[in-house]
Fold each of these.
Amino acid sequence: MLYKSLLKPVIFKKDAEEAHDLALRISSEANHSAFLQTLASIIYGGGKNQEKEYWGLKFKNPVGLAAGFDKNGTTPKAMEALGFGFIEIGSVTAKSSQGNPKPRAFRLPDDNSLINRMGLNNDGSDVITDRLKNHNLSIPLGVNIAKTNDASIHGKDAISDYAYSYEKAVSVADYITVNISCPNTGEGKTFEDPEALTSLLKGLNPSTNEIPTLVKFSVDTEKEILRKLVEICERYSIDGYVATNTSSNRDNLNTKKSALRAIGNGGLSGAAIANKSDTVISTLYEILQGSKPIIGVGGIDSVESAQRKVDAGANLLQIYTGLVYEGPGLIKKIKNETDFR
Ligand SMILES: Cc1cc2nc3c(=O)[nH]c(=O)nc-3n(C[C@H](O)[C@H](O)[C@H](O)COP(=O)(O)O)c2cc1C
């Protein structure tokens, strides 16, 4: 109520990235203030006990923050105070990056969605892992890693680039997500090609450490490719899956074509991708038969959309765009009213 009636009208007057920066500044402030954290947990925290255990980690509840909101790991304590049961920071890359030129984030209010082409802007894995040492969180911290957004880093160097962030993440993360599906890189290519994924997982060699390692797929992954990719992941002892990342597709949107043309490229997130994301989760569940946990993400903005992800096969959930449209009250609502596995 507080968010939708008071804050959202003000925030939505700002450019989407400026609004995000403001939310980050406030959250970073709260990250260092016990008073603000207490205040946030009085307003937004609490609720039904929904503790779950996966990979030997205790999740206070199954509702997590999706990658991309806190790329630099500056707000985890504040996010815990808002009631999230786990947090995924990043994507973190080996070298720091400014990302793509602005503007690069856009609201699609007629679709309760966003388009972004941030381009993996982040402080780099050295600075971020340093920042997260002694983080003192009582919920699991996921670190999402990607390849540095620099088209000149390819082939073997691309694998070494990922491996650098992976090693760094091992020192601070409770779980690591390997983001193979970012649509916003300079080279315009992802690691969702069977050959590229095989080389990557061979290079990372996740079976040599104790940290659960997950792979994150695009919402645009076709069923047969998904089968092949999961087969490769299983060969390299991947512990779970995050489904899904954003979409490059623009079908069936309410937003006018001219507005979409003016925005240009980027990953579509929010309500517009919810159904397609549910389909990817169902396919994953069909392949895995419950043998590995699935984090469901993509267009959750209500208890109903959260329930559809759980029914499709998700064990844990993550939210990003839904927070922009519905505010942090959504976390407790989903936590209290969804029937989880
Ligand atoms: C502005 C923005 C930046 C994002 N950055 C990342 C990122 O760096 N790494 C990543 O794996 N996903 C990133 N995502 C994707 C989200 O984690 C999520 O998979 C996707 O937005 C679908 O969930 P949603 O509909 O709840 O937003 C980003 C999403 C948005 C909106």
Note: The chain has a mean pLDDT of 96.
Amino acid sequence: MPSAIKKKNRFSDLWEATINALLPPRCVATGEIVDAQGMVSPVFWAQLQFIEDPFCKTCGSPFSFNLPTGALCAACMEQEPLFDQSRSAVTYNEASRKLVLAFKYGDRLHTVHTFVPWMIRAGQELIGQADCIIPVPLHARRLRERRFNQSALLAQAIATRTGKDYLPDTLLRIRHTTPQNGLSAKDRDRNVRGAFVVKKCSHATVRDKNLLLIDDVFTTGATLNECARILKSAGAETVNVLTIARVAKEEF
Ligand SMILES: [Zn+2]
């Protein structure tokens, strides 16, 4: 390792140790003191449901009973999604919802340090296949209201940690859509249809590439399907999806 990098690492270790001594890291959910920045307390950890095998090979939906690796869920067998594969770190339950909402609407941006290691673990295989990482974009109006795109923060941090190319302005949301909450699966599909485009000058960037789309929550998959459709029509080879959380099928 070059000595300049060694020195820089020693300096950042020392800086982190000083900050931790002055302001001990706290659980982003409960406020309890924890060992390192981004960690959650053991009590809160126990409320999270990390998604482990067995799950649907395509959409990543967890199975509540044992099925052979590679099995598909009924929904994917009935209608294949337009993305290739999707993975999520946790089930969207009361605990993960609390964290995601605080991140998205409560300006708790440092929660990104909590989510990113979970997402890298859940998406290890998909990250390995990816040439580039792309966030699900917000419409310009929504971005002005919220001041940041939570999916872009996650995508950028994952790309930095894994050394992948980060393409923030490739996919654009050109139509302001009403929030998907409360809409049926069919209405969600209709709501996002035609809402995205690939920037004209980025078609060559995505052509024949394996892309990894990042979003916060996988609900019905309507938005992610539409993004995959647009990216594939621009020539992408594969479009995989990675989110923090996914809604269990029976919840919608
Ligand atoms: Zn499935």
Note: The chain has a mean pLDDT of 89.
Amino acid sequence: MPSEPALELDGVSVSYAGLRALHNVSMVVPQGAAVALLGANGAGKSTMLRTISGVIRAERGRIYVHGQRIEHRPAYRIARMGVVHVPEGRGVFPSLTVRENLLMATSAMSGALDPVEEGTALFPALGNRLAQVAGSLSGGEQQMLALARALMAKPKVLMVDEISMGLAPIIVGQLFETLRERVAAGISLLIVEQYVEAALGMADYGYVMDKGVIVDVGEPADLRRRGLVTAYLGGAA
Ligand SMILES: Nc1ncnc2c1ncn2[C@@H]1O[C@H](COP(=O)(O)OP(=O)(O)O)[C@@H](O)[C@H]1O
Ligand SMILES: [Mg+2]
């Protein structure tokens, strides 16, 4: 029996105060796959992730996680199904220390190893910063902390929103390497990115969005050949 997709959207529409942000969006993230969601600012990428997380509600359409309908479930129940969202911006508690951020990540987790040990094993750079408040870390260190917190929740479906924003390429490379390892270990990944080539380089499939609509879908090589990514993102690399 073919395994069910980790995540599926079927005809999802979302509006903000009457203004359509997503229109009839359908998407599949197969189990164990990495899917890149690409598109210019305002295309609706973050709205899609927030809708999947249950933070905002779809007005139409269905969302499935491992075959179960979730679009009416509260966000905490969706999170408990293993859907973990690293939001746009820095997903850390800025006034707490790195150690406190790591400790708080695991309150919902069963069979915890030492969360501080686990987090610093993932990103050794955090080990030297444990007593520092997260808001005073560099952008790259904050994203490492955000990703460490997300991974300690043992996600089945991980959604990452523009984690590379404003970071040096070498740091982006480290974060992507960690994501790549997790996909190899079986996580399903939905990655929203501005670094189109970096995202397509690790993705099995890509979706291109424009103004709330999916305008192209395919394997990275097909997307590159059709050129719509560049057309919609104005050649951003
Ligand atoms: N909280 C909000 N209230 C009203 N409109 C919003 C809100 N968030 C996003 N939008 C609008 O929805 C559209 C999609 O935004 P967004 O999902 O943030 O796009 P992206 O992440 O692709 O840049 C944009 O037109 C944006 O202005
Ligand atoms: Mg966004």
Note: The domain at 7-233 is CATH 3.40.50.300 (Rossmann fold).
